[in-house]
Design goal:
It is a single chain. Strand 1 and strand 2 form a beta hairpin. The protein has 14 helices and 15 strands. With about 425 residues, the chain is of the alpha/beta class. It binds pyridoxal-5'-phosphate.
């Protein structure tokens, strides 16, 4: 039955509607195949993917090197649990820690699990290394954050859609405005502060790029106050913003140089999404020994975390980024994209601005947040062969796979311009 290719998109949408929980509101398109920057629907119509599964598919759909590594490992050994060693995990751990420049990694599966891991690590460090009284640790977070969907993570969200009626909320978090070093400095004077958890660009909030110097300044303030600087790069990491990590700043080396002046080293780095190129759930928490050593046997874990398939996929996915120079490509194409959008905006009454770094960008529609204009534009973009999704009402995020060519990008900009023009009054 799952092989039944005679079902239409309409049938398939009805099936999800009837049998699946309604926890998403998808664009009405049913995808059946992906390759590189393209996806095809159940009727065989071809689209440019301008979401990349929320930046998980940075390496492009079904990258042969990643799929090859995954299937080869899946035929050999899939899961041992961490009750035993496996012959992929050690080499993967060596590879990823050298790749990002940390002593150790703690492997998990999803982004939210990795954020939870970072929170646990930070709290334990605070009690055992910093000497905060048990159960008193506070972690500073930012307004409009998005770190995932667990009960603890939604506890410190200020989005009512994410947390209303999911209480009681986990205590131990203080929320401050994003992109405000003065507020951070004030909050750091509070009692029992253990960490500052931050997205170097807020993706879900609408690709909010902080001021130059914010990340570096935040780390310096944390360091001065003996507080862990925790970077959630689940969305911004792994080439997406035109640097290997957003904490690399505007270093254009692709992230494999000796640490540059622009680099801000997080005490804890959280990765997910593109760590697998979208092939498999793979996430990771990286830290140096002085922090990671507080976690001892039995104190944290995951049945699937660090499994052999994940290790093989992680290595392949990171090699693709390096070998194909996708970071550099994201940087170059991002500049072209924002140039093209700015040219369009000059003539537009409908689009206010474009912002972003590398290939993580958004345009803001000149309409109220509760209008359906952005949604309607995305439906039209789909009809014109490009898939994107609104975030926060009047913002449309544009984040294609990083394997895009310049020619394809211009083709996509033409589609966006043409579609927006249909909506100009
Ligand atoms: C997507 C995302 C997460 C959560 O990852 P999941 O794999 O969906 O649990 C956490 N942080 C950021 C910044 C994200 O974009």
């Amino acid at each position: 039955m799952l092989e039944n290719k005679t079902m239409t998109s309409e049938d398939l949408i009805k099936l999800e509607d009837k049998h699946g929980a309604h926890n998403y509101h998808p664009l009405p398109v049913v995808l059946a195949k992906g390759d590189g920057v393209h996806v095809w629907d159940a009727e065989g119509r071809k689209y440019y993917d301008f979401l990349s599964a929320y930046s998980a598919v940075n390496q492009g759909h079904c990258h042969p090197a990643i799929v090859g590594a995954m299937t080869k490992q899946a035929e050999t050994l899939t899961l041992t649990s961490r009750a035993f060693y496996n012959d992929v995990l050690g080499p993967y751990e060596k590879f990823i820690t050298e790749y990002f420049g940390f002593d150790k990694v703690l492997p998990m599966n999803t982004g939210a699990e990795a954020v939870e891991t970072a929170i646990k690590l930070c709290r334990k460090w605070a009690y055992e290394k910093k000497g905060i009284d048990e159960n008193k640790a506070q972690i500073i977070v930012c307004d409009n954050n998005f770190h995932g969907r667990t009960t603890t993570i939604v506890s410190f969200s200020n989005d009512p859609v994410a947390n209303k009626n999911f209480g009681p909320y986990t205590p131990g978090f203080i929320r401050i405005p994003y992109n405000d070093l003065g507020e951070l400095e004030r909050a750091l004077q509070g009692e029992n502060i253990a960490g500052f958890l931050v997205e170097p660009i807020q993706g879900e909030a609408g690709v909010m790029v902080p001021d130059e110097g914010y990340i570096k300044g935040a780390k310096e303030l944390c360091q001065k106050n003996g507080v862990l600087f925790i970077a959630d790069e689940v969305q911004t990491g792994i080439g997406r913003t035109g640097a290997l990590l957003r904490v690399c700043g505007d270093c254009s080396c692709g992230g494999h140089c000796e640490k540059q002046e622009t680099y801000t080293e997080p005490d804890i780095l959280i990765l997910g999404k593109a760590l697998s190129g979208g092939a498999y759930p793979v996430s990771a928490v990286l830290a140096n020994d002085s922090v990671m050593e507080v976690i001892q046997p039995g104190q944290h874990g995951s049945t699937f975390g660090g499994n052999p398939v994940a290790g093989a996929v992680g290595v392949a996915a990171l090699n693709v980024i390096r070998d194909e120079k996708l970071t550099q490509n994201a940087r170059k194409l991002g500049e072209i994209f924002r140039d093209r959008m700015n040219q369009m905006i000059e003539k537009s009454n409908l689009v206010n601005l474009v912002r972003g770094r590398g290939l993580l960008n958004a345009i803001v529609i000149n309409d109220s947040e509760d209008s359906s204009t952005a949604w309607d534009i995305c439906v039209s973009l789909k009809d014109n062969g490009l898939l994107a999704k609104p975030t926060h009402g009047n913002i449309i995020r544009f984040a294609p796979p990083l394997v895009m060519t310049e020619e394809q990008l211009h083709d996509c900009c033409d589609i966006i311009e043409r579609t927006i023009a249909e909506f100009e009054k």
